[in-house]
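Hey, I'm writing a tutorial for new members on how sequence and structure tokens pair up, and I'd like a real worked example in the thread rather than a made-up one. If someone can provide the structure for the chain below, I'll link this post from the tutorial.
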Amino acid sequence: MTAISDLNELLASMEPHLNEGVFVFATVDSLAEVDASSIVALMQEPEGLSVVMTESDAVRQGIAHEFRSSWITLTVTSALEAVGLTAAFAQALGDVQISCNVIAGHHHDHIFVSVESTDAALAALRGLQASAR
């Protein structure tokens, strides 16, 4: 599939998808401390490796964690150089007082919101999508 860079087209076709489960953020010193197959996302930071995984995997592995979140994937294939998508959905979520943690993959944007705000976040994202059509 061809990656989309036009903002209006991105918004109109973003199709938010809720991934099943509860996800958490944690920091480990090395990959040796975690079952690599349980990692959803990984980022090297000065403080250590930030990992995102299911809450059940973190508990099972004894990894201290925080921010119980839902994972929403925007299924549109967004171009890495696309301008404005992150700002648009962050604004839509901010307008309803929902913070988000965003991870951009090669093909899709992934949004982590608190478990408690999942339904409202999906409604805001779907509203943004509908307004672009």
